[in-house]
Amino acid sequence: MAQAATVVARLGATIDEFARERDALVATLRRAARTAPAPPPAPAHIPVVARVPDAPVPAPPAPRPVAPPRAPRPRLSPQQVLLGLGALLVVAAAIAFVAVAWTRLGVTFQAVVMGTVTAAACAASAFAARRGLRATEEALAAAGAALLAVDLGAAHALGLAGADAVPLRLWSGLSCVVAGGIALALGRATRSTVTWPLVALLAVQPAGWLLLPAGLADGPAGTAVLLGTALLDVLALLLLRPALRPVAQGLAAPVTTAGVLLGVPLAWDGAPLDSWLATAVLAVAAAGAVALLREPRVAAHLPPPRVVSGVAAAIAAAALAGSLSGLGVGGAVTAAGLGLVLLTAAAPPGTAAAALAALVAAGGVLAGAGAAVLAEEGRSGPLALLVLAAAVPAGLAAVLRPGVRPAATGAALAAPGLAVLVALEGDLLGPVPAALLLALGGAASFAVSALRARFPEEGAAAVAGTLAGLAAGLVAADAGAWGQLAVDLAVVGAAAGCYAVVARRQPVAVLAVADLVLACWIAAAGADVGTPEVYTLPAAAGLLLLAVPALRTGAVSWAAEGPAVAVALLPSALVVVDEPTALRLVGVVAVAAGLTVAGTLTHRQAPFVVGAGALAVVVLGRLAPYAPLVPRWVTLATAGLLLLVVGATYERRRQQAREAVAWVAQMR
Known about the structure:
The protein contains 28 helices and no strands. By secondary structure, it is mostly helical.
């Protein structure tokens, strides 16, 4: 019996061991089935086809790419909704309890009840965290944080233990510190809860600024605290869990903005000590922001380095310009000069993108702010020199940096003209020399356009030349210096014409000819010249000059030389009829006859029609006054004889008229 019992025991132990191994194997297979990819579908039956010798085997079709499954959108579950509403109702009940039960219950009892409820909510959150109830854990933590805020606010409002004697600003700062400390401690105790680190992060934001006395909060100390808080937000990215990093980024931006909006106006309008302290704080913060870019883990969550360095440098430069402006005109000149130096330092190639952005941003802000202060103070002399000096960094950038060459070329060519206008506004230059300098600057711009034809900077130089010429004309016209206006237009027009010929720009050629013709007209009007040919002949010459390309290509006469010969001859023919002089009559008849003959020989319609029309206008205009003096019988006889001749030779004259019209019509 003993032996049988031993055998039975051994068999039972063996069976139990087999069962455990079976269960373990089944669990392993189930885990492998959940993680392994789905097997490919079984191939369908392919019929066997006899292979033709030397026939190419078709390649199998390429598999279609399978789109990755879309991640499901997060949705609120019924459990989360119920938990959120429950936590909200608990907090509302606590607020109502504090507000309503004041007249019925003592402060101490209220404090005990509220503290107990808050501690219970926090403890329940920790209990739910240990049980793995994530939604319940977060809801109870949010309720506990809200109850904690209510407790701290009620303690001051109800005067618990003399708390109402503490100033509200200081109490608010201390409350933020207490709430942040409790949340941080609870977060370390229950590491799975997201609410506690979030509450600690939110509570820290206003704490430092609220703890400052009111007199210091609006000064450099307040700026330093706000920017320091933003720095802590950025550094917290190294410690926070991934879900809270966007929150830290979102909090750092408004806190930084608040610090900048407090520090920059203080640098401009504050007392000298506060101004320079604010500038120093902003400069240190800018340097710290640039230094953070060296940490890859932090830089990955920040904007691109060139954006960070550019914005930081611009803010520090704005503050520095404000502090320098407090020194008067010398400070403004120093700020603008320092800006030009920084812009010049940015011109050489090979500078890193972040450093280049910082130099350009800081230089632009300093130069612009200094120039604005000088303009507001009415210091035209230093401002004109600084504007003229701005051509140096712009010119260097145009030469050394092809990427910004068009804009830099335009700026370099526009700077001297702007300096002349500033000097004119400050009565440092008279209108006549100012207009001449502007015209010469426009001519130089067109010369650059001609030299750099077919390059990207050609357009910028041409625009600068056009604006300079327009400014020269307006300045001279406003001063009533018509002779100077004619000279300026001639200078700019000649330069623009040369550029148009070199670059083959027809619109520019039209503008150049218009400038030259207008210059001739203004000069003639200024000299009180009333001869029509002084005005018509320059216009005709300009039209003929514009028609040279059409003449070279053999265009029709009315599109080429037609406008020129019409403008040159027809006004003079009309004047001959109204105010006849021997010289003008001979000249008009000779030119008209020459155009008629030339049109006939060259088979060009426009010279022939204009010349013949001018001759007809002159003959009829000159004979018309004598028509009433002819006896009536002569007129009647002449008309009769003319009708008889026409009637007798009607068919022949009709054929000749048709041939004449066809001959003229077929001219080009």
